[in-house]
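// run 5 | inverse folding | seed 20
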């Protein structure tokens, strides 16, 4: 570990000790509040609802109880019913024995601070963009486990695009997800922004928080290399702003079958303005300054470098880097009008599963940081809310992977089966329409509509929208 990494580890380790003391004092109060606000409905506790809930195919109030103290928040639909059934059968959500990893700060610190250890074998490609900038794609090529499972019936492995957090740190969980996906038959590839994780900054331009232009070019290149393979995407933490911005801007032209976000930051502007708990704020800010310090000379022509490295908060750092530029300064309001990840959320046409924790110390309380109305009203967005897990943690005792990884890959398999069934139903309807058309005159056929098979329209009521 480099010297700055050791300093960051010591800084965040102090947070763990402080968090444990605070957690012991507030544990009873937090549980009571959580039970009233998130997990209790109509005066009943979560355990009571799990034991006495209704059928798996019926939705009560859009907040469906699941094993392990989790809850699925979504708009009722045929796809939601299919996902709910899969989650209730999932072994990943089964509660395990309570361990020392249960605390939210320890879950978060183990994820961000501990060394990554031996990771997968990566083959790096540099992609030159339209403005001559560079982004990096790390293709996971090994180790190849025996008996790899194929993820689709066509025999081609599905491509899994992984987007790390916005700070550019490649964490243990990201590498663990890549290894698990490789074992399950996916072809994982990690997207690195300009200047992140060894990617050279060849032009004095960095990627704003929610600007998906670089990601669009990377997805186009991936589709060129694997034109027939299904494409899924997973983002981690603050990196979810990039994925959600991409899905909103591209709509039905995103080329993706499904997406998932682990501990996403959804209300980004409020998150920057409110600030993080000071150890996390200082740790992430220190990491940002260390990464950009090697490009100080190149950035001096575009931003006030002295002011940038004197920043005392993430908001001040972000505002100095992207708003107070020397060539084209903009206001803080204008910046978020262009970079808010939910600015085009109504245009998204891909199912997105967001996995969040009620004890997330980085994002904050879900009552204030999660737009639950989005999940209640938009049929493409699903929120899996757990009681414990920290920020991007969701860890289990070694050597088991994080349970969020298992749930994400199970969700992608459920989506694949659902869409395959949907296509079979549509093909059956087309064949029936063609058969009836052969027995009628053309004039009569123009005046009548061919009804779908009886009973199938009600079951498969979820439909994909094509917005662009």
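// decoded
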């Amino acid at each position: 570990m480099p010297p700055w990494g050791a300093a960051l580890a010591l800084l965040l380790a102090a947070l763990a000790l402080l968090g444990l003391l605070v957690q012991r004092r507030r544990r009873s109060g937090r549980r009571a509040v959580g039970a009233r606000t998130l997990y209790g409905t109509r005066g009943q506790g979560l355990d009571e609802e799990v034991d006495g809930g209704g059928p798996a195919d019926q939705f009560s109030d859009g907040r469906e109880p699941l094993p392990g103290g989790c809850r699925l928040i979504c708009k009722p639909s045929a796809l939601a019913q299919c996902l709910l059934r899969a989650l209730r059968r999932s072994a990943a959500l089964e509660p395990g024995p309570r361990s020392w990893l249960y605390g939210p700060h320890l879950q978060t610190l183990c994820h961000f601070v501990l060394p990554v250890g031996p990771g997968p074998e990566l083959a790096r490609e540099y992609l030159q963009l339209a403005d001559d900038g560079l982004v990096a794609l790390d293709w996971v090529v090994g180790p190849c486990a025996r008996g790899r499972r194929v993820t689709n019936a066509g025999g081609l492995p599905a491509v899994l695009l992984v987007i790390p957090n916005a700070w550019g740190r490649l964490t243990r969980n990201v590498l663990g997800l890549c290894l698990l996906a490789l074992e399950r038959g996916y072809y994982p590839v990690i997207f690195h922004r300009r200047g992140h994780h060894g990617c050279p900054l060849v032009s004095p331009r960095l990627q704003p928080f929610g600007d998906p232009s670089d990601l669009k070019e990377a997805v186009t290149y991936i589709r060129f290399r694997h034109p027939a393979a299904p494409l899924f995407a997973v983002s981690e933490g603050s990196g979810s702003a990039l994925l959600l911005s991409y899905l909103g801007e591209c709509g039905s032209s995103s080329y993706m079958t499904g997406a998932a976000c682990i501990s996403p930051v959804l209300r980004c502007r409020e998150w920057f303005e409110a600030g993080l708990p000071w150890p996390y704020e200082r740790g992430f800010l220190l990491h940002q300054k260390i990464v950009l310090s090697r490009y100080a000379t190149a950035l001096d022509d575009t931003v006030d470098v002295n002011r940038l490295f004197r920043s005392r908060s993430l908001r001040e750092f972000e505002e100095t880097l992207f708003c107070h530029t020397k060539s084209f300064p903009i206001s803080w309001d204008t910046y978020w009008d262009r970079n808010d990840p939910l600015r085009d959320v109504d245009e998204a046409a891909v199912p997105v599963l967001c996995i969040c924790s009620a004890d997330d110390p980085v994002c904050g309380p879900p009552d204030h940081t999660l737009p639950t109305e989005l999940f209640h009203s938009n049929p493409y967005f699903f929120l899996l809310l757990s009681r414990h897990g920290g920020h991007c943690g969701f860890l289990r005792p070694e050597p088991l992977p994080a349970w969020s990884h298992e749930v994400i890959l199970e969700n992608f398999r459920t989506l694949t089966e659902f869409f395959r069934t949907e296509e079979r139903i549509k093909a059956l309807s087309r064949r029936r329409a063609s058969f009836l058309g052969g027995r009628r005159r053309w004039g009569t056929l123009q005046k009548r509509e061919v009804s779908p098979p009886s009973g199938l329209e009600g079951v498969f009521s979820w439909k994909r929208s094509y917005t662009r």
